[in-house]
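Dataset card, provenance and construction

Sequences and ligand SMILES were collected as paired inputs. For each pair, a complete structure of the chain with the small molecule in place was predicted and serialized as structure tokens. The example below shows a pair involving flavin-adenine dinucleotide. Curators did not alter the output after generation; any descriptive sentences attached to a record were derived from the structure itself.
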Amino acid sequence: MLIDLEKDGVQKITSSVCVVGAGAAGISMALQFESMGIKTTVLEGGGLTYPKPGTHDLYDGELADKYYPLAASRLRYLGGSTNHWGGWSRQLDDFDFMSKPYFDVSGWPIKKSELQPYYQKAAEICEINNFKASHDGTLKQQVNDGVLSWQDDLFENKFFVFSPPTRFGQKYLGDLKAANHVTTFLNANATELILEKNKVIGVHAQTLSGDQISVQAQVVIVAMGGLENARFLLNQRNEHNQFGVGNQNDLVGRYFMDHPGFRPIDLMLPTGMNYRRHAFKGLPVMPVISMTEDALLEHQLNNFCILLNQKKDDANLPSNYGQNPWLKGSEKYGTYQAQFIFEPSPCRDSRVMLSQKKDQLGWPKLKLDWRFNDRDFRSVERVIELLTQSLGQYHQGRVNWHKQFTLEHIAEIGGGMHHGGTTLMSAEESQGVVDSNCAVYGCQGLYVAGNSVFPNIGFSNPTVTIIALALRLCDHLQEQLV
Ligand SMILES: Cc1cc2nc3c(=O)[nH]c(=O)nc-3n(C[C@H](O)[C@H](O)[C@H](O)COP(=O)(O)OP(=O)(O)OC[C@H]3O[C@@H](n4cnc5c(N)ncnc54)[C@H](O)[C@@H]3O)c2cc1C
């Protein structure tokens, strides 16, 4: 059932689960609870279409030093940010789950194999038809045209696949309307957890015009996106939680991570390289250059990938470049701009905080201070050195390194708009906000869904992993609730 709180005032509702936020995570969980027959209330802050200015303004905030598009990188209506996502999809690598001694916060407290059963279902929800092929070696074996064949055991080709992209609000509207066990409220902005000491028993929500609803629930799942999850927990300050719920160790909001993208090098390679999105057997794929897990560990590197874009203006490359006897790949060479997407290592001072300014509902806005560790740039430099050696040694091409990035250049570095790492998952309460089942430490009945729980984010876009983890949470809760 779907109810617009602005039109149909409902003051109180009781359910087993309350999911706050109807984006990729929230809608996937709502449909899963429906299939499990678990009575669920979904509170969605926006309506059915692009939000009115007042609603979208709730996503505005303050920035510390580095620019970040706080409002433009999120959408506050049914379907959340899937209303403008690009559909790029890829599992995290085993490497991303591993403990790496050279990261401050390192590895996940769960193994990738625990998520594996949920990834395929997540791919189906996102309507990705070649997901399995992207990680079972099929694409790696079969996509040979337009990619480098690596001769050493350092570099390898990895693959993104694509959702159409599925707009969750449109695609699953009918299912939400038809649901028997799930009631979704629109224009219902969650403002406050209802707590009994350190146990959650519900959520208050309200419209911008002041209509209110209280949801009583055994379990509350916060699924409001990576920035808002942290802001919401920080805003829950009371006598038992002086600094916000789950924040007893000053960790809520810390370790904010996004995927930085920048272009420090050009590659001179044979023409026809196809490290771009293209159709393979009728389905979209995108090969990227990356490294083997062993090489990443041996050289103590952050995970990364490189996309190539052939430059139209090749004035700097002599037409007889390919006749260089050292180059054995082709007669014709071109210059490719190489775009790095790399995994940031978790940085404690990169964080979401509360601003002094308040939103229209009277709650402190968020303030974002996005930072990096210097080691991330050293890691990129080492990758470039190794790539230069590898391409040279095997006569494949050359690297033109035109810009060395340092912390001073962070203003020039953009993000993927993937808001990770503000409510980290850890096996130790002292080091995380949620445990390995996404339960908030110190607050019984409260859970977090979304990439805010990712301790390491790899280089893969997050949505399929967000959904896989959310589906795993549903299974975990089913044992308690049915
Ligand atoms: C331009 C762009 C392109 C992207 N491209 C890709 C891509 O190619 N691949 C990929 O994997 N990811 C991509 N992403 C990221 C992707 O959109 C997110 O990973 C995904 O939407 C996160 O899902 P979520 O459910 O955690 O949060 P969201 O989708 O952000 O959903 C959160 C929901 O919570 C609601 N909400 C917020 N606050 C409240 C409140 N107080 N009360 C009630 N409801 C609330 C919001 O209205 C929203 O519906 C992209 C993002 C952007 C901005």
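Derived descriptions for this record:
The first strand starts at residue 2 and ends at 4.
The chain has a mean pLDDT of 94.
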